[in-house]
Amino acid sequence: MPDPHLYLAAMRSVGAICWAIFMLLPAVAFATPAARILRVDPETVTSSGAPILTTIVDLSEARRISEVTGHCAGLTGTEALNCESDALEAPQALYRPYKMPAEQTLLTVRIDGEEFPAKLESVTRFGDAVHEPGIGTAWLIVLDADERGKPGFQELHRVASAFVSALAATDLVNVVVLGEKQVIGDSGWQTQSGRDAAESVLSKTRDVVKSRDRTRPLLTLLKRTIQDAFRTLSPPSGMRLPLHQAVLFLSSGYGGGDPATTGPGAAELSRYLTAGKFGEGDALLPKLPLPTIAIMTPPTGYAEHAQLASDFMRNLANPEIGGFFSVVQKGQSARAPRIVDAVRARFASLLVARFRLACVASTLTQSLSLIFPAADPPIVGDSSFKDVPLGFDPASWPLDVDLATTRREIDAAGGLFPGSTFKVFGQFCWGGDLSRPEVYFLPPGETLPDSLQTSGSNSYEDVRKRLIALDMRSPAVAANEAFAEFRVPDTDRILHGAGERQAARFVIVDRKAKRSSGLTAGTAIEVKAMKRPIPKFWYWALGGAAAIILTLIWFGLARLISRRRTALTTYSGIRIEGSPYLTPAPISQRGPRKEPQPMARVVLRGKNERFTVLPDSELTIGRDGSRATAVLSHPQVSGVHATFRIEGSTLLVRDENSHSGTRVRGERIAPGKFVEVRDEDTIELGPESLRVEFIRP
């Protein structure tokens, strides 16, 4: 039998050679870039009247733990564990952050079977946005004090303390200590300023607790602890709830012979935490995907139990959404800051992506999809947010009103006045349904609440009923996805103030979706207004009278000049009627004016398409065949993208508030207004190009 010492030395040499070869080989390839929505902010933020949805997104190329530690396979015991820990704690060992391509990023919300796009407004690294309210992490730190983890317990204790010490101002922390089969310490959720309570729970647990049974239901105990903690997660007064959450589990992983505390059991729990749906049967709980950081110390006991514990801890980590795994052994407290830095660097690489979301479903649950059409290289999107409550009442989500364009158009008309019509521009979900949009004007002295309640007084329905009772509302006279046109009530009660500062205040409401532009004091729309001007009839009458008077004066002056001219051309009683100087020169004869020929038709030629526009009809182009006359199937073409029509000898095009826009001669046109198109022009509908060809008789 070979000498075991020589055998061990040989194995170490082989392991060293394998490590050297591994370091010289190219790095293991990362997976395809993938995006995952980790959190959706339930609170609405508005920018210039537009509703903004804030999300936390992980966009990265991930690697499996086995890929990172594969070169350690030839080692055993402490050396193998040290090799794995060193590899996993290296910068970006389990991931590589990926930049979000703004032009190819699309978030959609599904409403009544149709996908409505949301425009990407901004992207910020999570680490660069931690000064913003709500951009932080709620840390659940679970320290296992079971006796089987005694050799490395002090090192696990040190790692837990290091995470508590690194708490940011926008973070929360809850420290829970587990005994053999129950929770023996719980700090509750604490802020950075209150982390002494979390430190106190750790300081009271300086050593492991006595264990009596060889079997312990660790998986069940951990899952219940996580569920209980995040069900009670709420921010203290004056602080916003962090948008990101994470679990730090420090344990030997010992479950003995427990049938659930195994590698497969941990993998199932990891999928549960990655899905983020806590509380079976409660459909109204929001989706909270939880990155899990599993820090292990080798347990004492039988070898088979130690292997089960190792498999359990490794499979808990979910690096695909920011999870992490490492091993800390006795005497390795120095690993604590490295582990903290590795985990916080991973979270700092997450993205805070904000989208301009015009449409939401009228139900408490929403279905979101994050996709990247035409991205190069391809990016795997996220469609896991299906029928998920996002934590907000859809009635509180404001309509997407373009305040700047609305005010500019009203100002150009001189302001609103009783009996006039006006347009409100934006991105709306009512299409051409005139029964949905309404405007409610506020008379002087009428006030709106500072905030809306979910029910009772000052709820959406209560405020809307009060506005209806004022009898100052008007339905729409025209509407589409880009605007709604209303008639102003014919009363001076719409006017606030006097003189140059006179204004009107109103609220836009979508009756079907039960949404508004804002039913609170700070969100009512205010625009320029004036008293009813003198009717145009009187201007025309006065103009006509003035024209008649001027005509009479002209004829009188002409007759007087004619008499004087006759007198000047008479000499000694002889009229000089034949003088060439009194005969006007002949006017050259011109042919009849050449009127442009009317259009027979216009042909729009694409790469693989050919569309025809006929006189006295409109051609609507879009991706949705049920609403558009002609179909372009590219995903960046909107459901109804643009409308073409012929007027006489002129071709006109109007953008229907499309997501990717319409360009004429290379310039993007404003939505909702017809623009003239010339022969041989190129029209761009998002990424699709159409060549214009006029066909005349």
Structure in words:
This protein is α+β, with helices and mostly antiparallel strands. It has three domains: 32-371, 3-Layer(aba) Sandwich (Rossmann fold); 400-528, no CATH class; 601-695, Tumour Suppressor Smad4, CATH 2.60.200.20. Helices cover 24% and strands 28% of the residues. The protein has twelve helices and 37 strands. The strands form six sheets. Strands 1, 2, 3, 4, 5, 6, 14, 15 and 16 form a nine-stranded antiparallel beta sheet that branches. Strands 17, 18, 19, 20, 21, 22, 23 and 24 form an eight-stranded antiparallel beta sheet that branches. A hairpin with a 3-residue loop joins strand 20 and strand 21. Helix 4 packs antiparallel against helix 5, helix 4 (153-165) crosses helix 9 (335-348) and helix 7 packs parallel to helix 8. The radius of gyration is 37 Å and the shape is elongated. It starts with a helix and ends with a strand.
